[in-house]
Amino acid sequence: TFPILSNSTQLEFVTENQKLEFPLQGSPVLQRNRLSPVEAELLERAIFEFIKGLKLHNVIMFHKAAVDDGLLLSELLYSNSVHVTHIEVLVVSKAVKILEHFFTTVGSSNTADILLISLEDGEEIDQLLMSLVSNKRIKTLVVGNLQRWQDRLLEVKAYEMYLIVIMHCKESVQPVDGSSTKEDDSIYCFESEDVYTVWQSFLSDEGSQKMHQVAVWKKNSKMIKMEPEIDTIIVRLALVEYWPFIRIRMVNGTVTLNDCVLKRLLNEFAKRQNLKFKLLYGHKWGGKVETDWTGAIGMVLREEADMIPFLPVTESRESVLDFTKPKAFINHGIL
């Protein structure tokens, strides 16, 4: 049997021929160096201890054929009212289509509380995850190979990926009594302890993302969280008066904001993401004149600014700019 967890009061199981699976073409695409049962249990407990504070509602776990990885983690998440879906992946392209349909169903506004988890380690699973996170910024947790994932971050735009990497190592622990198994006092026998470190992606001042260690977990101690030394990012905003969202005030030629929606959002972003903002006056949204763009759009295309808050969407603008998702639909009327 293969578990499919839900928010119901009982754990549901489906038979082998009912699994969410994709026909095998060639050899299995996911390969992994198997952990011992003890190491696998500790890994899943370490993952749970970290992610239980992320306020998740949905977790999707990827598996290769006929493995039990993730069952303990599923039970722990289920006990915390998290909906867990297990998907057996044999063909990456078909898995991508199924999951893209899932994200379309739940809606782009609901992806913030979803976490993708892969306990596998291989190029194919990397490709699957990279295909899914593009332009969705879905939280993704993987195990091992920190440097490879740091390289992967350089392949995407800085706002496209929220990555967590769990690393495992053995740490030598000297016996409490200091005894050794050899008569020679210069030779000691040390026990080893499993240590799991947690790394997370953060924006860097180079316009990409960097991995920073944010926590460490051991079997006999609680999750110890750390405050990483992350870069302070300066984001240049091209502003156009757009009541009630943007209310501009000029003070001695310097752009400031009166109390408005944008000002409150920027204060919250600065607090959560270690960001600073430089406000630039865009005069107007801008339009295309022959081959060039004017106004705030032109400032972004000329790399004089990084972002235009609350820019209304048009087909021509979408052809040159990346818009955040979800999009807001606003109707204006006159009485």
Task: Give a nutshell description of this structure.
24% of the residues lie in helices and 27% in strands.
Describe, in plain words, how this protein is organized in 3D.
It comes from Larinioides sclopetarius. Residues 260-334 form the Ionotropic glutamate receptor L-glutamate and glycine-binding domain. It is a multi-pass membrane protein. One of its GO terms (molecular function) is ligand-gated monoatomic ion channel activity. It holds the Pfam family Lig_chan-Glu_bd. By secondary structure, this protein is α/β, with parallel strands linked by helices. The protein is built from eight helices and 16 strands. The protein has an eight-stranded mixed sheet, with helices on both faces. The chain has a two-stranded antiparallel ribbon with strand order 1-2. A hairpin with a 5-residue loop joins strand 9 (209-218) and strand 10 (224-225). The chain is elongated, with a radius of gyration of 25 Å. The relative contact order is 0.09.
Q: Number of DSSP strands?
A: 16
Q: For the CA atoms, what is the radius of gyration?
A: 25 Å
Report how far the terminal alpha carbons are from each other: 62 Å
Strand order of the largest sheet: 4-3-5-6-7-8-9-10
**Major sheet characteristics:** 8 strands, mixed
User: How would you spell out the order of helices and strands?
Assistant: EEHEHEHEHEHEEEEEEEHEEEHH
Name the average pLDDT. 77
Tally of helical segments: 8
Give me the secondary-structure category: alpha/beta
This entry's quaternary arrangement is: single chain
